[in-house]
Amino acid sequence: MNTKFGLRGCCALLGVLALVQCSQPAPAPEAAAPATNGGQAGARKYIRFTGAGNSYPGFTRVGLMMLGALKRDYPDHDTWIDFHESGRQFRDGVLRVMQGDAEIVFANPAHTPTLAYRGVAVFTKDGPQTGLRGIGKYPSDDWITFAVDPKLGITSVNEIRERKLGLKIGTAYQDGDNIMPFLLREVLRRHGISEADFTSWGGEIISTDYFKQPRGTNVRQAYSNGEINALFLESGYDANWAKNIGIRPMTFINLDPEAAKSLEAEWGWPSRYIRAGYYPGQPERVLALDFTDWALAVHERMSDEMAYKLAQLFIERYPEMEGPPEVKVGMERITAGFGGNKREFVPAEQIKMGIPLHPGAIRYYREKGILPAGTN
C-alpha cells in the first residue's frame, strides 16, 4: 500500500526541518494544466517528489535534499514526498508526473522512464509518454539474475526452448505495475518461447504475491525451500545471494546475445555481463539484463528555471547523497545509498539517458562544460 507522509517528521530526523515546509498530499490538479514552475491545483502550487520502483534510503535522502533546496527558491509552493513499498509503482510513479499529480519522479532502474517514453512493457496500454524529460541518473551497479536448479543441466535460456522445460519461475509482483514479469515474458518470447508453449510444457510464472501471502516468505526463500526451480529477480548484486546458494545451489543462465540486442533496440533495455566468479560456483561470465542507476525525470511542462535548479542540485550536491564510507555491500537497505554496488559518479555519463533531457537541465550542463554544444 502506498503512503504519503508530510515532510516535517522526516526532516526532523535528518535535521532539515527549517528547510522544507510540508503539506498533506496535494489533490490532483483539476485540469492538469501546464504550470509555471511546479504543479498547480487551483491557486495552490506544489513541488511533489514521487518514486517508481524500489525505495532504498537513497530515495528519501535525494527527495528531502531536493525539496528542501527548492522550497527556499519557491516558498509559495507546498512540498511532499511519496513513499511506497519496495517493488511497487514502477508504472504508477512515472504516470503521476505525466498526469500532473507530481513534478519529479525518481525511478529505479533508470531504464523505466525509457519504457514509458517508448510506450512498451507496463506502459503499452498508456502509449508513448513523449512529454517525459530527463535530469540525470544517480549511479548504482545492479542486474537481473535468471537462475535455475543445476540439476536441470542448462546454462542458457535457449535450452529452455530446446528441451521444452516446464520451469516454475519465481519473480516479482504480477500486478500490472511491476516491470519484472513483463521483462521475463519478453525475454522468453525473444528466445522463441511463447506463453502458450511454456504453459503446455508445465511451466508457470509465480509471483512474490503468492509467496508473501499468507506465509511471509520471499522468492529466494521459496527456491531454497524447493517450491520453485528457477527465479528471475533484480538485486543481483546483493551479497546475500551467496547465502541462498549455500542452501540450494543455482546455475545462472545466459541470455542469447541477439535476443538481448533486440530487446535493447526496441525497448531501450540493455544487457550486461555478470563477471565470472561473482557468485559461488559460477565459473564463467553470464549475460544478463541490466538494472543500473536511479533516474530523475520530469514533465516537459516544468519551467526551464526549475529544471536548471534540479540539474544543479543533482551535480553539485551528489557527494552529500552517497552513503557513509562504513556502509557494507548488501547493507544499503538499512543504512544509505541506492542499492547496487557502488559505481563512480561521472557527470558526463550520468546525464546520458534513454529520454530527452529537459532544456533547463541542458542549459546547466552546457554552462558547466558537462554537455558539449550541439548535443542533447
Can you offer a commentary on this structure?
By secondary structure, this protein is of the alpha/beta class. The protein folds into 2 domains: 214 residues, D-Maltodextrin-Binding Protein, domain 2; 145 residues, D-Maltodextrin-Binding Protein, domain 2, CATH 3.40.190.10. Helix content is 33%, strand content 18%. The chain is built from 15 helices and 14 strands. The strands form 3 sheets. Strands 1, 2, 3, 4, 5, 6 and 14 form a 7-stranded mixed sheet that branches. A 5-stranded mixed sheet has the order 9-8-10-7-11. The radius of gyration is 21 Å and the shape is elongated. The two termini are 38 Å apart. The N terminus is likely disordered.
The gist of it:
This protein has helices spanning 7-14, 57-73, 90-98, 112-118, 158-163, 179-190, 195-200, 208-212, 219-224, 241-247, 257-267, 304-316, 318-321, 347-350, 359-367; strands spanning 3-5, 39-41, 44-53, 77-83, 104-108, 132-138, 145-148, 168-171, 204-207, 230-233, 251-252, 271-274, 286-289, 294-299. It has 376 residues and is of the alpha/beta class.
Distance between the termini: 38 Å
CATH superfamily of the largest domain: Periplasmic binding protein-like II
The appropriate CATH architecture of the largest domain is 3-Layer(aba) Sandwich
H/E element sequence: EHEEHEHEHEEHEHHEHHEHEHEEEHHHH
Count up the domains: 2
| Chain-averaged pLDDT | 86
How does the overall form come out from the CA principal axes?
Answer: elongated
Extract low-pLDDT stretches.
1-37
The structure class reads alpha/beta
Characterize the biggest β-sheet. Answer: 7 strands, mixed
Give the total of beta strands.
14
CA radius of gyration: 21 Å
Specify the CATH class of the largest domain: Alpha Beta
The CATH topology of the largest domain is D-Maltodextrin-Binding Protein, domain 2
Question: Number of helix segments?
Answer: 15
Q: What fraction of the residues are assigned to beta strands by DSSP?
A: 15-25%
Helix content: 25-40%
